[in-house]
Amino acid sequence: MEKQNFNKEDFLLNRQPLVIYLLTSFTFLLILIRLIFLQLVNYENYKNMSNENRIRLIASQPIRGLITDKNGFILADSKIKYSLIIKPQYVTEIDWKNYKSKLSILLDTRSELLQKRYIDGLKYNDLSITLLDNLTVDQIIKFKENEKLLNGIEISNKVIRNYPYKTLASHVIGYTQPITDSEFSILSKKGYKLNDVIGRTGIEFAYEDFIRGDWGGEMVEVNSAGTFQQSLGIKPAKKGKDIQLTLDLNLQLVAEKVLKDKKGGAIIVMDPRDGAIRAMASKPTFDLNFFSKDFKPQKEYDALFNSSKKPLFNRALNAYDPGSVWKIVTALAGLESGKFPSDTLLETKRCITYGSQCFREHNDLGFGYIGYEDALRVSSNTFFYQIGHAVGVDKIYDISKKLGFASLSGIEISEQENVGLVASSKWAKEGRGWGKPGRTPWVPEDIASMSIGQFVVQVTPIQIARAYAAIANGGYLVTPHLSKFDKQFILNKKPIKIDIDEKNIQVIKRGLRKVVESGTGVSINYGVSNLPSVSGKTGTAEDGEGGLDHAWFVCFTPSDKSELLIVAFAQNTPGGGSVHALPMAREILKVWNDNN
Questions:
Q1: For the chain, what percentages of helix, strand and coil (3-state, to nearest 5) are there?
Q2: What is the structure's pLDDT at 2?
């Protein structure tokens, strides 16, 4: 039998249908798997993508909530800016030609402008095209009279923030600004739109989520070419919630007034029982309505952002040398240490030497032998030098921390707040914030400065308010606040009992009463009738940055069951706290007393 020869070409030819069959089956299988993936596994994603291309939203801006004072007076509201818009999906070309001519005559505007804006809107398939901005009252009335003849054209409104009192409490209320492109990528997930506004500072920032409200609008269906098909419904915008502050408009107005003739400064009026802020003013100030303008003139912009006066700077929350208003801290350190009990008498002198310097008494004479109460009454320097030198830096630091210094106060607008500085031996060893560790040791001169609130001590007016409130209310540290609304980081915190002997607090309280009865603060009573008893402390502080002296005055009234506390600060205003700061507090006391 003859052996058959193997033919490779015949073999491949015979196998060809099988290969084609396998390739076809494999391709069909891939298509099937892909269809299953698209139709079943990833159905929702593609459905959403389709809807996003098919459904569009003509957004409706929410109105931010009101900001009012404690009595309901409006400090911030919203004002409506009116614009004329056309919804081209409801207007034919023939209609538009007639409308354009009619609107030009009716609203006294150029038809060329109307045509250009209309065509530009059509290019981008806009479903709402703005024809005219900032309509006048006269234009609005004329349009409304003819509205029924202009189907598809309507007046829309844009809500802008409005501040009726302009500069009043500007640092407290804060302002809004449009969100940036980089912010939008994050904030869009929270419902923000392009060109939306957000609170930047103050209450507008702290309570943004509470005040802002929710967007609404009309849902419309379009085809693949972007042509309008039908309206799917309207969802009204949701107004933001109103917020009532603890501020008292009458006290805020007088606080702003008494700062007008000062180069710079701050006023804080607070209820020492719970920390409610009744007024907070900072000078220089600024007009909050600047931020609501579409066009911001360069001159106004520079005066706000590039001025050496720094009007955006909240001086009520910035740190300065406190001078003699700090002496209550040194006094409590002496009392709490046990080295200088309440009946201590010390000889005050012309000056006392520490290190290489003789630190002087402010009258260059001394006051003889005096105790705590009279040392506060006459504001003796050499009395407190001796207390501070004996108890040491760390005891003073420890007492200051208990009184709320060297820490944030807890107020809602903490984005503006400075922690300040209270020196300690550890701080000195670590380089004082600017040097190398171990090369800037604590020196004898430091304790003299610290004892009377100079150079190595810098505190904010709000910290001073907290410390003096603890004296006024008998030993409780309060949390300053601007609203009763319960924020996560603050409010409705009960006053905290501080770890300082109540008897020692009473010693300080009696001394502060004597300051006003017969000491450096006696003029607080001048020209005020029927004023309840007042306790307080004057202060004059050298500016650690080399400027002119600062003037301070702190007081609370009534002395026994205090309802009001005032911190008055005049920046770089030489002449003394009793000359410049005290009269500011007196004007506030007058208004408060008259209202009560």
A1: 40, 20, 40
A2: 47
Q: Please give the pLDDT value at position 64.
A: 93
Residue 243 CA to residue 67 CA, distance in Å, equals 5
DSSP element (H, E) containing 396: helix 393-402
In our burial notation (b when 16+ CB lie closer than 10 A, e otherwise), range 346-367 reads: bebbeebebeeeebbbeeeebb
Question: Are 573 and 265 contacting, i.e. CB atoms less than 8 angstroms apart?
Answer: yes
Q: Say how far apart CA 335 and CA 344 lie, in whole Å.
A: 9
pTM, two decimal places: 0.82
Question: Tokens 């269906």 appear where?
Answer: 221
Structure-block tokens of residue 346: 């010390």
Q: Could you give the 3-state DSSP secondary structure of residue 348?
A: strand
Classified by CATH at the fold level, domain 249-285+314-595 comes out as Beta-lactamase (3.40.710)
Where along the chain do its domains lie?
Answer: 61-244, 249-285+314-595
Of the CA atoms within 13 Å of residue 568, those in its CB half-sphere come to 34
For 402-440, how does the pLDDT look when each residue is reduced to its tens digit (9 = 90+)?
A: 999 999 999 999 999 999 999 999 999 999 988 999 899
Q: Cβ(260)–Cβ(167) under 8 Å?
A: no
The dihedral formed by the CA atoms of 449, 454, 460 and 466, expressed in degrees to the nearest 10: 40
Amino acid in position 277: I
CA distances for 516 relative to 3, 369, 452, 590, angstroms: 133, 21, 19, 16
Residue type present at position 590 = K
| Distance (Å, whole) CA 249 – CA 71 | 8
Ordered DSSP codes for 263-329: SSEEEEEE-TTT-BEEEEEEES---GGGGG-SS--HHHHHHHHS-TT-TT--GGGS-B--GGGGHHH
Count Cα atoms within 13 angstroms, Cβ side, for 211: 30
pLDDT band at 15 (very low <50, low <70, confident <90, very high): low
CB burial class (10 A; 0-12, 13-18, 19+) of residue 125?
middle
Q: Helices (DSSP H) in 8-164: which residue ranges?
A: 8-36, 43-54, 93-106, 111-123, 137-146
Say how many C-beta atoms besides its own lie within 10 A of residue 432's C-beta.
18
**The CATH number of the domain covering residues in 61-244:** 3.90.1310.10
Give every CB contact of residue 36 below 8 A, 6+ residues apart in sequence: none
Token duo for residue 333: 């350190």
Give the dihedral of Cα atoms 172, 177, 180, 183; nearest 10 deg.
Answer: 40
